[in-house]
Amino acid sequence: MRPCGVFDETYEKDIAIVRTRGHWLLLIGSLLFLFILPLFAPYYLLNLTNNIFITVIVVLGLQIVTGCCGQISFGQPAFMAVGAFFSAVLTTKFGISFWIALPLSGIAAGLVGLIGGAPSLRIKGFYLAMGTIAIFYLTMWVITHLHITGGHQGLSVESPSIGSFVFDTDERIYYIILIITIILTFFARNLLRSRVGRVFVAIRDNDLAAEVMGVNTFYYKLLAFFISCFYAGIGGSLFCHWYTVVNSEQYTLIHGLNFIGMIIVGGLGSIPGVFFGVIFLRLLDELVLFGSPFLTELIPKLGIAPAASLGVMVFGLVLIIFLIFQPRGLAHTWEILKTSYRIYPYKN
Amino acid sequence: MARIDQQSRNPILEIDNISLNFGGTVALKDINMDILPGEILAIIGPNGAGKTSLFNCMNGFYRPQKGTITFKKTDITRQPPYKIAKMGVARTFQNIELFTGLTALDNLMAARHILMKQGALAGGFFFGSARKEEVQHRQVVEDIIDLLDMESIRKKVVGSLPYGQRKRVDMGRALCMEPDVLLLDEPMAGMNVEEKEDMARFILDIHELKETSIVLVEHDMAVIMDLVSRGIVLDFGRKIADGTPEEIKDNPQVIKAYLGDKFSKKGVSL
Ligand SMILES: Nc1ncnc2c1ncn2[C@@H]1O[C@H](COP(=O)(O)OP(=O)(O)O)[C@@H](O)[C@H]1O
Ligand SMILES: [Mg+2]
What we know:
Helix content of chain B: 25-40%
Radius of gyration of chain B: 19 Å
Strand content of chain B: 15-25%
Mean pLDDT of chain A: 91
Bound molecules: adenosine-5'-diphosphate, magnesium ion
Largest interface: A-B, 34 and 42 residues
CATH class of chain A: Mainly Alpha
CATH architecture of the largest domain in chain B: 3-Layer(aba) Sandwich
Number of strands of chain B: 10
CATH class of the largest domain in chain B: Alpha Beta
Oligomer: heterodimer
């Protein structure tokens, strides 16, 4: 947040993200807070935070390919699954350490993602979205029909460890997840303000004009898919080593829809928006989970377990509300708030 | 203008006998023309004459069924648009095709793409080579922003800008590519006199500064007389005249194409 009267004197300053002393304080303060969170957070909250961060990683990837590059993909959970199973197989069947398996599963998911992205040479928008659904089912089918992945049953996996220290509790693995989330957020945010990120947005906004600027649009679409699926693969790998089991049930198309919902609610193309969107919709899920027993008491006709269907309904409703009233997402609301702070007491 | 010594130079872009059809429609028929280094050339012709199609052939959007286009001694007839752009052909669009979600500044920075080098990894880690490159190219882009008087809209998202300013961004973006040939499709269409004068001044400035060959589609004869050294007239996809603005203005075929038969004898100005 930049107070009124702060101007930039050099281009370095103009393109900086962290601009003022206040910014630095805020950044360091929040990081510090996140690092000491396990000291006082109850189990439930820490578990939720782990889940949120892994989702953030996966949705950051989706933001790059869909929010920035404009290639709608519902296949993200399948690429998560690729990362999860790849990591599981490497560590359990080949005895490779988690620390090596983690980046490799990102790369493996990225490479499978190139196949997922290939149709984007010919098809766009709605048709591409349908294509990614097909890729989702194809990938999941292959995974469940391979022998090495344990088929439908999946595999059980070990927790990561360094020497004799095993990251086998929520508090311990929290730090791995947190650090990787920070690195990948830093990477995504920087990518978007440099050459390749600008090309992604250029392709989203006008692919013909991008070609005329000398952009090999197909190459960059594939690159966007690769990066996006790399993120999904990392998320998948973390998820399976946290849960210590992996099976195909964990990765459904509904998750893919949810991820898209998160970037819409958060704001297309925005990195802070990813956090807003993920946190908002995950908290909403929790709310529905808590609220549904009371609702059942109130209206017995709803049956005993309305949470599942209620969750989907609330998700749909929220999405409609956002598309109508704030199509640019929470990130835009946040920008408006920042601007009014900056130019206070004037009005926008 | 210095037409004689331009003619003695070798053309930078040669169009050799191209024809382009869409089903039954003939968009271009047996077109021959050259673009000389550093000249300002006008393409003139009524609506549907094939001017935009000609540009689309030059930058690789359309592939003519017949004939070849040579740029800097390389056959580019079947090259994809991005390769032709990399070789040094930039263009603007009749209907303005901007990156609507980006700011004016980022639109121009995006056009530096072919001149920049940093890949995704360097960009993601940013501090170091990518930042250095950003700043270097930002300086060039700022010069072009100065040249086109765009300081006040630098940080505005272009989707929200009025028409005249969007035209300017479109032009600035083409300039940022530092092309050898700049194709401007109706750069002054829909502008008032003042805006037209601004645009004409920009075109002359660019020409003087960078010695770019500029090809522009324009209807206003007054503008053409002031601005260009040569004009080519298209009608129903055929080239019907090629010469100085004066020669074109008095060409009976040109007058006929624009105003129909009954005016052709009176020599009405366009
Ligand atoms: N993509 C296309 N598909 C079909 N016909 C086209 C296409 N592009 C241009 N044409 C036709 O080619 C002719 C020339 O069009 P155009 O080059 O746009 O003319 P101008 O720019 O001189 O007004 C017109 O008859 C137009 O209908
Ligand atoms: Mg036209």
